[in-house]
Amino acid sequence: MIYLKTLLKVIDNSGAEIVECIKVLRKSPMNCAHVGDKIVVVVQEAKPLSSQITGTSASNRVKRGDICRAVVVRTKYPIQRDDGTVIRFDDNACVLINQKDEPIGTRVGSVVARELRKKNFNKIISLAPRVV
Amino acid sequence: MSFIFKRAQSSISNATTALNELKSSKQLISPSVIPYINSNAPITSRNNESKRQRRRLLERPGLIGIKRGMTCFFDNQGRRLPATVLEIIQNEVTFTRNVTKEGINSIQIGAGYQKPQNVTRSMLGHFRNAKVSPKQYLSDFEILNEDNLLPLGTELKADHFKIGQFVDVISVIKGKGMAGVMKRWGFGGGNASHGASKSHRSAGSTGQNTTPARVLPGKKMAGRLGNERNTIFNLEILDCNADNGYILVKGCVSGSKGSFVEIRDALKKYGKHLINLNK
Amino acid sequence: MSLNLVRAFSCARTVFAKKMVVYAPLPNLRNGQNLMEHIKQSQYAKFDKSGAKQAALSLHNKERIRADDIVTVVYKNQKPVTGQVLMVKRAGLNSTILLRNKITGLGVEMNIPVFHPNIIRLDIVRRPANYKPRNRHYYIRNSRLDVGELSGGSK
């Protein structure tokens, strides 16, 4: 149930901490995003830029106020699977992606839902420490 | 009927040949120059026979079931599906009509059992003619061909339907009694606050002023809700068991537990028009 | 004329007074067993041959799964799932248990249909010393009573 103004946690190392949803892509305005759906977000809180970070991760850092795309990886709203299992997480979380649907960051911090595999976000699945 | 049909067809074919001749000539022709096709007005005959010809019909009758409740069903792919249990008992052919005599091909099926002392004598005679027990519920199923009429007293079992096929289920919705417009028609209602007085769930305006000076027919208003026949189309058959007399259909069915439901082959998938068959 | 009509009517009455032939109904199926009960039993016979899952949920069984237990669900085709039971829903074949666990510090809840054919068995990993006086433990979410990071092996 992610829609306009929803605040989500960012679980990658792109530098963003908390983002706000400003658009759910490819859905009618009355609909909301679930796991695996793409959204447009504004970065509300970001980690401070430090000189220690170098390489690709430094060039991909995002700042407060940046607008980027993201994919929802966990929702508080229950997800029902085909086998009848219902799964629910304690928070709403996303991973920032670029225009080609590849993750901006190089790491994914915590657990993600299995539904991402159906939507071809295999990179995120392989980076995640645990898939439920 | 068929004569008129042929005439209509021939006039159309004449026009199309004229068109083809025009197309075959190598000149470039603007679309506006193409002559009109003289087509006859659509023939809609209102007699019963031509109505029957236009109706979408099935080749065989359906069954009468009793809704017993819902359960879940695990299929071969490991999916959990909701399923409604429909009991098929005492389904027998009680009466048939044929097109030459009654103008309709139909099979009347009875289901359930009623004590003879609760049945009128005229109905007892009806059941006696078919040599079947007194039934609780009767229903007519119209079919395509006279050849497919079944002999009286034929028993129909749950294996009439095959697993994986689609059916329509017709039953009576639970009565909701007198209902307001919000529940009956999904109106928005009024404000909960901001000074709203006694109009939180009201319908609002019912029309204009001096013109037309009346409420137009069909205006959605409060009234009786439910307690009417409803058809649910294209439900999949998940399981059927003739020995134990039940079928499971995917999803839900209107009506309360213990109510009679009519189950037929899915009309939109398997139905045919006689008018198309006769062409 | 009217006399004739009356006669005809009375005559008809005598004919109607004859006993009507009534045919017997078809034989009862399932020896008169309730259909829903029959379906429940046949589903149990199909999806729970050993009766272990039924026993795990049965109220008559003292060793049944209760809220506050820590349970591991073992699947045929995927990794086992462990968690603390928040709730047991008894609804025939549609019975479910609600498991809560923390993975990397994040609460994850799964409502699992117990009789699903891909579930091999349910293992009770740990039982509490004293059960709480409730059957639904929704209130432990995000409180000091909340579950820790549970794993299947810990006993």
Automatic annotation (TrEMBL), chain A:
Q: What's in the GO CC field?
A: mitochondrial large ribosomal subunit
InterPro entries in the record: Ribosomal_uL14 (IPR000218), Ribosomal_uL14_bac-type (IPR005745), Ribosomal_uL14_CS (IPR019972), Ribosomal_uL14_sf (IPR036853)
Tell me where on the tree of life, at the top rank, the source sits: Eukaryota
Example GO biological process? translation
Q: Which CDD domains match?
A: Ribosomal_uL14
Family, per entry? Belongs to the universal ribosomal protein uL14 family.
Which protein is depicted?
Answer: Large ribosomal subunit protein uL14m
TrEMBL record, chain B:
User: Under the cellular component aspect of Gene Ontology, which terms does the record hold?
Assistant: mitochondrial large ribosomal subunit
Gene3D superfamilies, sorted: Translation factors (2.40.30.10)
Q: Where is the composition biased (Polar residues)?
A: 202-212
Query: Which GO BP terms sit in this record?
Result: translation
Region named Disordered: 192-216
Task: Give the source's domain of life in one word.
Answer: Eukaryota
Q: Does the keyword Ribosomal protein apply?
A: yes
Q: Give GO MF terms, alphabetically.
A: structural constituent of ribosome
Q: Which SUPFAM superfamilies match?
A: Translation proteins
Keywords from the UniProt entry? Ribonucleoprotein, Ribosomal protein
The signal peptide annotation in the UniProt record is none
Family to which the UniProt record says this protein belongs? Belongs to the universal ribosomal protein uL3 family.
* HAMAP family on file: Ribosomal_uL3_B (MF_01325_B)
Matching NCBIfam families, A to Z?
A: L3_bact
Q: What is this protein's record name?
A: Large ribosomal subunit protein uL3m
TrEMBL record, chain C:
The Gene Ontology terms for molecular function here are: structural constituent of ribosome
**Keywords for the protein's UniProt record, in alphabetical order:** Ribonucleoprotein, Ribosomal protein
Q: From its record, what is one biological process in GO terms? A: translation
Highest taxon in the source lineage = Eukaryota
Alphabetical list of InterPro entries matching this protein: Ribosomal_bL19, Ribosomal_bL19_sf, Translation_prot_SH3-like_sf
Keyword Ribonucleoprotein assigned: yes
- SUPFAM superfamilies associated with the record: Translation proteins SH3-like domain (SSF50104)
Q: List GO terms (cellular component aspect).
A: mitochondrial large ribosomal subunit
UniProt lists the family membership as follows: Belongs to the bacterial ribosomal protein bL19 family.
Specify the protein name.
Mitochondrial 54S ribosomal protein
